[in-house]
Design brief:
Distance between the termini: 33 Å
Number of strands: 11
Shape: globular
CATH class: Mainly Beta
Radius of gyration: 17 Å
Largest sheet: 6 strands, antiparallel
Helix content: under 10%
Strand order of the largest sheet: 2-1-11-10-7-8
Number of helices: 0
Oligomer: single chain
CATH architecture: Sandwich
Structural class: mainly beta
Mean pLDDT: 86
Order of helices and strands: EEEEEEEEEEE
């Protein structure tokens, strides 16, 4: 399973800014500070230095808000506050400051380079 985050709306995307991030497992920190895994530049400072963290746990992705101004899960209708954590659903739109970010979850096990059953060969059908 993997998570793809894509910036779908921001009024001042900067040249060279990464518009998309992929995540499999582990954790990803998002914010305006350069020590985040995904840096979202924000001169208006609506995005906190370490705004939120996404973590893969127990087969799901969870977003935890660490910000001053909150995170909104638009499709779910949830306005998060500092310290709260919510599961991410496929197709969710995450609002962080002036950024809108689309979340896509790929549930497929057949991604290139991934063998769900190590040590087994693919089954070949003969007709």
């Amino acid at each position: 399973m993997s998570l793809c985050l894509t910036i779908t709306s921001y009024h001042k995307i900067t040249p060279g800014q990464c518009p998309e991030k992929l995540m499999d497992q582990g954790m990803m920190a998002i914010g305006r500070s350069s020590d985040n895994d995904w840096v979202l530049p924000d001169p208006e400072r609506l995005v906190s230095a370490r705004h939120c963290v996404i973590q893969y746990k127990d087969g799901r992705y969870y977003l935890t808000d660490n910000s001053t101004n909150g995170v909104e899960l638009v499709r779910a209708g949830i306005r998060m506050r500092r310290g709260s954590s919510e599961p991410l659903e496929d197709g969710e739109v995450i609002r962080i400051g002036d950024y809108e970010i689309s979340a896509r979850i790929d549930f497929s096990l057949n991604r290139p380079g991934l063998n769900p059953f190590p040590g087994t060969a693919p089954i070949v059908s003969r007709r």
